[in-house]
């Protein structure tokens, strides 16, 4: 291996791009696979778990890694594209070692003592044989005072006890911290592949807003399973944090009595939005629309509009259009007057009324329009979003291109493997 640093910390590898010899990105690092045989022996690093196109996770042996730096990983390009499946003799550093409670030997000689802490990172180093081994463990003691973090220790692997012990209830503080650094889709991919007990701990540790973001990116089976294991009050809170269209899709997959209970526990306004979306037939504009686009009155200025679209919670497609309506401004609104494109607004003086920059030539969608009709409409007019109105011209919501893709892609697309051909021997061949 060339250009390899003396020491690499596993948690910092997560999310790094992986490149082939031509400089093309082939995936992102998701975890490190090691073989732990005894606490006294430094575990050998077998390889990396890399996520490639289609959210497929593959195993990349360390013999295929040519360089690691602080921003990327380089490989030989000869990768086996078969889906990674963890073996009983293997341990995932990020997924299973972080947050493990251990006993750490601190100090030397007669002054040495043992303290208890939790693992928050693990370092690996390359030996002269060019093999990689886990060399050091970073652990943190429990805090002793209000809002104070405990002392941290970075010690040799041999000075730590408890890393080979399986814990019944392992916390997930450090793993959640690592997940919070990722985009929701990437965090969802990691959670999907965690062992059941670790997934349960992670879900319990995530706050409601973050869990809602992750749930929106998980396959439907995972969504339902996670929601069914939450207590009803928390499940309702998480559903409130989800976008109404995603929450409606999820609730529709639950048993009727469970769905009714959760809707009853949600805030009335949030529940009303979800019920309204569930009232439309599946695969129609009404069922897939977002009921909370950027809606302004005719007296709003360009400055007002730009302030609204700066909201970081808005997706790119929702921020592309502003919908100008008569009162009331909550869907179903007063009559839709027209839409204003963000590109047009950026060219107008801030004090100009948005109503003076409306595109009134854009035909709105009807809630009963099929998914194919919606797709044809967006494609014909090169749109990333379009309004949905009722018979009286009142705005009901907006269909965005990401809503459309979610419904047009084949069922189970989040788990589909990339259409690639293995270029190395099958996984039946030993890794080491």
TrEMBL record:
Location of the CBS domain: 358-415
Gene3D superfamilies for this protein: CBS-domain, MgtE N-terminal domain-like
SUPFAM superfamilies: CBS-domain pair, MgtE N-terminal domain-like, PRC-barrel domain
Gene Ontology CC entries for this record: membrane
Entry keywords, A to Z: CBS domain
Entries under InterPro entries matching the protein: CBS_dom (IPR000644), CBS_dom_sf (IPR046342), Mg_transptr_MgtE_intracell_dom (IPR006668), MgtE_N_sf (IPR038076), MgtE_transporter (IPR006669), PRC-brl_dom (IPR027275), PRC_barrel-like_sf (IPR011033), SH3_actinomycetes (IPR058838)
PROSITE patterns: CBS (PS51371)
Cross-referenced Pfam families: CBS, MgtE_N, PRC, SH3_actinomycetes
SMART domains: MgtE_N (SM00924)
Family annotation (CDD domains): CBS_pair_Mg_transporter
GO terms of molecular function: magnesium ion transmembrane transporter activity
Name listed for the protein in its UniProt record: Mg/Co/Ni transporter MgtE
């Amino acid at each position: 291996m060339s250009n390899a640093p003396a020491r690499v910390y596993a948690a910092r590898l997560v999310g790094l791009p992986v490149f082939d010899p031509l400089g093309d990105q082939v995936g992102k690092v998701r975890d490190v696979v090691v073989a732990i045989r005894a606490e006294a022996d430094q575990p050998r690093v077998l390889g990396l778990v890399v996520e490639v196109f289609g959210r497929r996770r593959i195993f990349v042996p360390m013999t295929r890694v040519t360089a690691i730096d602080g921003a990327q990983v380089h490989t030989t390009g000869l990768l086996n594209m078969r889906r990674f499946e963890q073996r009983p003799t293997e341990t995932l550093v990020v997924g299973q070692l972080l947050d493990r409670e251990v006993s750490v030997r601190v100090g030397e000689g007669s002054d040495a003592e043992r303290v208890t802490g939790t693992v928050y990172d693990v370092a690996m180093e390359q030996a002269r044989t060019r093999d990689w081994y886990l060399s050091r463990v970073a652990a943190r003691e429990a805090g002793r005072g209000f809002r104070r973090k405990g002392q941290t220790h970075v010690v040799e692997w041999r000075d730590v006890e408890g890393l080979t012990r399986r814990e019944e209830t392992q916390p997930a503080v450090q793993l959640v911290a690592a997940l919070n650094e990722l985009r929701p889709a990437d965090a969802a991919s990691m959670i999907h592949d965690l062992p059941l007990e670790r997934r349960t701990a992670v879900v319990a540790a995530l706050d409601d807003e973050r869990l809602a973001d992750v749930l929106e990116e998980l396959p439907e089976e995972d969504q339902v399973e996670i929601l069914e294991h939450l207590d009803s009050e928390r499940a309702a809170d998480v559903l409130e944090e989800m976008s109404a269209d995603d929450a409606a899709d999820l609730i529709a997959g639950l048993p009727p009595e469970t769905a009714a209970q959760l809707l009853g526990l949600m805030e009335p306004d949030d529940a009303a939005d979800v019920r309204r979306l569930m009232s439309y037939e599946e695969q129609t504009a009404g069922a897939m629309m977002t009921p909370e686009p950027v809606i302004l009155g005719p007296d709003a200025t360009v400055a007002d509009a730009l302030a609204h679209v700066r909201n970081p919670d808005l997706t790119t497609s929702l921020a592309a259009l502003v919908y100008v309506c008569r009162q009331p401004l909550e869907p179903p609104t007063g009559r839709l007057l027209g839409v204003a494109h963000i590109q047009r607004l950026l060219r107008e003086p801030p004090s100009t009324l948005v109503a003076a920059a409306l595109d009134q030539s854009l035909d709105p969608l009807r809630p009963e329009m099929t998914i194919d009709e919606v797709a044809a409409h967006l494609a014909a007019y090169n749109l990333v979003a379009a309004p949905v109105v009722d018979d009286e011209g009142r705005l009901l919501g907006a269909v965005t291109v990401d809503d459309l893709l979610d419904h047009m892609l084949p069922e189970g697309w989040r788990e589909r493997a990339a259409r690639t051909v293995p270029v190395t021997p099958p996984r039946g061949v030993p890794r080491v």
